[in-house]
Structures
1.
Amino acid sequence: MTSRRAFIAGALSAPVLMRLGGLAFAAPLPRLGDLAKQKGLFFGAAITSEQVTAADGYAALLADQCGAYVAEWESKWGAIEWVRGHREYDSVDTIVAAAKSGGKMLRGHTLLWHFQLPPWADDAVLGSSGAWDELVAPFIFETAKRYAGDIAQWDVVNEVIEPEWQEPDGLRVTPFLAMRGRGYIADAFHLAAAAAPDARLYINEYDLCYAEDDQEKRRAAMLALLERLIADGVPVHGLGLQTHLKIGRTFDASRYRAFLDDVAGLGLDLAITELDVGEGPDPKGDTATRDRRNADEVRKVLEVAFEQKRLTGIVTWSLGDAVSYTRVSGESPDNRGLPFDEFLAPTAMHATLADLFAQADQRSAASS
Ligand code: G3I
């Protein structure tokens, strides 16, 4: 048995019924979290407190396949501080408890984002003097401190660049930029570092992997921001690459490789933080054709990311299609963009991820 097949055999989970030429046979399914861990990486998924505590097949699959969890929405400001001045952490505590009892690594998402703000945090409130010190900073500090020692990697800020806003440095115009100036990103990182000194602190961003000009501009803006933060002594440790792939976009491996080399060259870690494949509103072909196309899209992009020694792990944005944001949001109602479909059957993407982990170079686990 080749070392790769032996490697995958070592991380097999409960047999699943598979069909070949009319014969049904039980074949063990590789556990992606175990495969990743054997190489000093992590594999996990975005979850909700409901999903991870339910007594159903999806909860069992999450426990079986994931070595890491991240809250899909419940650790965002708008979900925690629904009432001004009163921060409710029960849902996140549930997720942290499930991760700890299951031996899972935790990513935190996200301490500062211009979306899913508390309902009371309108422009007038966020535009008032003292808003940062009285409202934003306390949320960042208390949340990071509460999970110090539990959450290994925090997305301290999410989606802070947007060249379409025509800012000289490509920053997105948000209430935080208006209230605190360009230093708000550094301030958020310093708060998180003071609250959770052992956490690895990340910037998380989307649309950094394809060749189109808009993504080239985004890569340039992100690299320049990271260089400034590091030059200013800001405690940023990694870049989260959301990696919401889209069928039909143009990919240039050399451009993506050069960008990742530049980021890693700054001494930063990397994580694929929200992997899924968007097929668009009317995907063509039968299920097998679609699954193959989506798995190939993952392979061509992740093969380049796996070349990076500083890659710490992969998170998919949900594990199964039935609860994927791509479907729930209505963007692509029957999207097949994850390792498991709505019937909890593995898609071709599962085998692709298993193979990528099997081929991955060994990392030092400490970096995650
Ligand atoms: O707030 C209600 C809550 O009261 C209710 O009990 C619950 C019942 O399901 O729903 C909650 O609502 C929504 C939640 O999703 C669950 O459906 C939130 O209002 C809604 O904002 C939230 O959407 C999330 C979205 O980010 C905004 O936070 C999605 O789940 C989540 O998949 C999506 O994830 C983002 C990443 O954070 C950043 N990158 C892009 C990615 C996809 O858009």
2.
Amino acid sequence: MPLSVIVLAAGQGTRMKSELPKVLHPISGLPMLHYVLDAAKNLSDDVTVVLFHQHERIREAIAHDFPDVHIALQDHANYPGTGGAVMNLSFRHDKVLVLNGDMPLVTAEALEPLVREEADIVMSVFDLADPSGYGRVVVEEGEVVAIVEEKDCTPKQKRIKTVNAGVYCFKKEVLERYLPLLSDDNAQKEYYLTDIVSMARREGRHILPVWVEEESFKGVNSRFDLAHAEELMQRRIREKWMRAGVTMHLPETIFIDSRAAFVGECEIDSGVSVLGESLITRSHLKTHTVVEEADIKDSTIGPMARIRPGSVIEASQIGNFVEVKKSRLKGVKAGHLSYLGDAEIDEGTNIGAGTITCNYDGKGKYKTIIGKRVFIGSDTQLVAPVKVEDETIIAAGTTVTKDVPKGALAISRTPLKFVSGFFHRFFGGR
Ligand code: UD1
Ligand code: CA
């Protein structure tokens, strides 16, 4: 269905008390505006975002993922308010859906009923026990006659429980007729988009209210709302993956980025975070593990492991307090307390407890390459760049500063000696 979409994102978001523009505050890994644009792009080939406050920063943040979204700048100084935001835009299609940029839980599916209906104005409403903060919807004889902002309400209007959810589908000619007639004669001295409703009604236009479920239309105005929206988003994400075959233990304690994906049967223990564009295939993430932008396949990770960006781990067992960064591990066991950074480690290799790749010399980062069936003893330091060939043994406590040839034992230790009677000489007694 041909539809133009306008996303309002020019407001300052004062109630967030933040340097960061409100619509860029992240929810489950992505700026909240991202979700709104996703929903908009699913419905339309003509999406415009209206910006003003920190427009450069917002433009930059969305350019990569939404290159074909149009950007419009509101003439905020002369025409503040949601009505001002929609003025002087051009629309390709005869129906225009207006969305708020601070509604991260909205989906194309939730918007569908508004778009499907035929009326001069289709508007989203819901009933709230506590309607405070929202515009009240005045209904007379089953028809919407006006939307009154809370600050302009009479005491009687304040008691109305039906509120404006803030999403509308207009006929283009309705917008074109009434936008120029808006005034800022109200408590906030702003041009209210909502005033179009009463003007259109007076001229006998058909205004259709559509009751929507509150969750998808929740607006984020404060950091409290932000946390609540993220909780709801997490529930959706977890449910999606559980339905796809992922077992979750105490799901409420698990955080999953909206860009992360799971393939096949996976198991996730309590307290796990899966961040960024991670891909987890047939693996078990044990309790309190953190995975960030990593690709993990047929492996068990943790408890309490940290897998950082650029890691590719296959058929491996990573144990507690092991940190892996930008490394490729295939068929590897690293059970305890290690740092493996900028490394490539091949099949059948065992990494002893306390092994450290010394990948950084204060200036550059260097690689450690470890071959097949290598036994790295505990407390080994591998000073990169360094290569350990197949079928070698590194003795516990060794500092590896040269490439280790195939089949060799590498050992660097000062010989152990005994000084007899030293304890009592030092501490006295006997
Ligand atoms: C608005 C509605 C209210 C509705 C509520 C639902 C109006 C006048 N009021 O109120 O009836 O119940 O949404 O959430 O429309 N914006 C601009 N330019 C501006 C001002 C705002 O682009 O000059 C954008 C904001 O960035 C935001 C959206 O419009 O995304 C809504 O603005 P906001 O100030 O949050 O409106 P509410 O007071 O919540
Ligand atoms: Ca709002």
